[in-house]
Amino acid sequence: MTVWLKRGTDSPYRTMVLLVLLGLAGLALRIGYGWDRTFWLDEAQSIYNAEKGARYLLSIDLGNTITDIHPPLYYLVLWAWRHLFSGYFGLRSLSLLFGMFALVFLYLLIKDISGPRTALIATTLSTFSVPHLHYSLEVRMYSLTLFLALINIWLFLKWTKERTRGQTIGYILSAVAALYAYHFLVFLFLVQWLYIGLIFNRDRKILPQWLLINGVLLICYLPGLYRLQAQLQFVGQDFWGIRPSLLEIPGLFFWFVGDSAWHTNYFFKILIGSTWLIACLLGWLSDRTEKRLKIVLTTWLLLPPLAVILMSFRTPLYQPRYFLFTIPVFYYYVSIGLERIWATRIRASFMIVFVLVSLLALVLFVRYPQHLDIRPVLETIDLEGPSPHPVFHINDAGGNDETYILSRLYRPWATRDCILGEYADVAKELISIVEPSEICPTMAGRLEVGEPCWIVYERSFLRELEPGKRLEQVLPMGYLTVAAYHFNLVDLYLAAPGEQKNEQS
What we know:
Blueprint: H1 2-9, H2 12-34, H3 41-51, H4 54-57, H5 62-65, H6 73-81, H7 87-114, H8 116-127, H9 130-135, H10 142-161, H11 165-179, H12 186-199, H13 206-220, H14 222-235, H15 248-258, H16 266-286, H17 291-312, H18 327-342, H19 347-367, H20 375-381, E1 391-394, H21 402-410, E2 417-420, E3 439-440, E4 453-458, H22 467-474, E5 479-487, E6 490-497, E7 502-504
Parallel strand pairs: 1-2, 1-4, 2-3, 5-7
Antiparallel strand pairs: 4-6, 5-6
Helix pairs in contact: 1-8, 2-8, 3-6, 7-8, 7-10, 8-18, 10-11, 11-13, 12-17, 15-16, 16-18, 16-19, 17-18
């Protein structure tokens, strides 16, 4: 490893060649992983928001802002992007583009902090990391947040040393973009204020310029503050985020490596997370960068998740994916730890374990999909052509509307689909997508006499009732399930007047 790194970083040409090879490998892995995967609920919401156009996305009307908790930048870019590229790959390629650029700025940032060798290791780890792979293909803003966080911190550190006009303009543009891309990126500015405070004694001229820059940022973000007040009220109304336990803190380190593999048992989670955590802790202890910078990097890694975990005990906000923008620091310290371990006698055994658990995390992620795949459900419904029968999507667990939203996205010609429930139970973040006419309290009002119907039932959200008991509650008198199909996380039933016949998987 040492020889390979020395050969790879002893000249800019060889470093460039290695980075290009890494980029090509990362691109091939991301495209091969599944750019044609079915969309899930949050991605469908991104698509619907983008379809509404720039006027809606830029509106500061409070009635519009509360239908989505995120700032509008990603949706605006997606709205413009989809005019150039459509389809599965077109929509996912925007996140792919941001993800690949994030790798470039990860290398540049760590190279400035610790040199090309550590930067090359960190870039290699990130290229094949599960979270980076996942969110480089998801039609959401997370790869954009990672890209903006890296370029913003990189420009900030350069500005604190040189303060050129180009760095100032670049920093302001990236900071404004960050504010309008993701609310939690505000933690970056707290980290930067901490660094300014730490270096103030040795550079007292920096504070007036820093205050001026922050004044410009505040003026630029005034429209965003107006929207934010409505979104904060929306979040406070039984938001769907996790009410965490203290186990979320060590669990976050597994997420940094393996993402949210729901079916992974605790043994594998502990094995994968602890192996990387050992390297991270050793890297943190071995880090010889400037003390002030080390404090800032550690704050960047820990402050955002810890602060949100604490806030979530009052108002649930926590989701591990919200902190993808903190992952570069984790990979930085893991890289230093691997360099330190390579200089010891246990290097061979540890590296074998490290590589194996990393491959295990990747295999588990690919093997166990995190979201339901609606396509086989819809293919079954339309097996003999577009189905003329109504499709009812059971709405349980305080707003399970995912199957309906996805069905409407993939079957725009269908006019007889509806959510079985009450409009008041529709998830609050979907009220701009679902109309009252698309909700039906009972099946009887949508069925003709003796007409069969389809029932879609998502298992992942249903905790209180068994599917059989729930179906008994909703089926009209005289109706029975005449066929049942079981897919990943979702069941499909054909109901009609008559006797129960068969069940398929």
